[in-house]
Amino acid sequence: PSDTGNIWTLSLLTHCFSSLPSYSWSMAGGVTYSSACEGLKGLAEEQVRICQRQAEAMDSVKHGAELAIEECQHQFHNRRWNCSTLQGLQVFGKVAIQGTRESAFIHAISSAGVAFAVTRACSRGELEKCGCDRKIRGVSAEGFQWSGCSDNLSYGIAFSQAFVDNPERSHGVSSSRALMNLHNNEAGRKAILSHMKVECKCHGVSGSCEVRTCWKVMPPFRKVGNVLKEKFEGATEVHPKRVGSRKLLVPKSSRFKPYTAHDLVYLVASPDFCDRDTHSGVFGTSGRQCNRTSHAMDGCELLCCGRGFRTAQAEMVERCSCKFHWCCSVKCKQCHHLVEVHTCR
Prior knowledge:
single chain; alpha/beta; Endo-n-acetylneuraminidase fold; 3-stranded mixed sheet; 10 helices; 19% strand; globular
């Protein structure tokens, strides 16, 4: 179905491409990838063609998918839904295909991950079809000279749009889920674009800054994850509305402010994620470690959904009594002590 394509694609890429050889500039490497692309289940036809035409970029796509998964798990590590694997290749679980705000975050971080990784590969000279962004030239309004290797984000975004968005577009965009997914895909890419920054280098005698050359770089991917997590918290619930011949997603309540292209949107409310439900792809929170003194989502009361928690003692080993010895080493002892660990019932 069109609404599952993005998630399945990225889940498959992290698994399937991990067993493929890294791209080789030789013809043999290209043939290996070409046949491998055809054998990947879950890819749309156009995605297979992109994989074959731009085999060199597939390592970056895989890396982008891994970035997305790692960042998702970091951002949600202390939440009831912690972006963990439930069944094999379903990296984000079945809940990701239900039109929830969790699905919105997954699509956004995934499309951003691919755009980020492809752009980074361009700047490093790893891809034949792109390089640094040389369009920015001349003197800026602030008086510095544009030069150096600016990140070619326009290429990374275009690649992400062509590859990641394709499953939604290949089935048409008449379904509400497809509209939602495409919007969130683009919001993820805009999180990178809107946080591009300028780096500069001074040139002159004895370190003076007579001439300053600058270039544009992407923010760290952790910054992108932080931005999208904020968008997740403020995501807008929407529903489809026919406007003339077009189908649009509008806020479900008139009290909600209109969302922008940078915001995340979702169609259905999330489950509470408290109890394991394999049919819905919910892992539950039983057995999760919680913080007994916290009143936030990682606290035992909220994370354990009122079921209570178990307390056990665990031994921790830490370096201690460290001393500096001339010259030049630091020697430490190993200290063992017991700590309380709390896990949800």
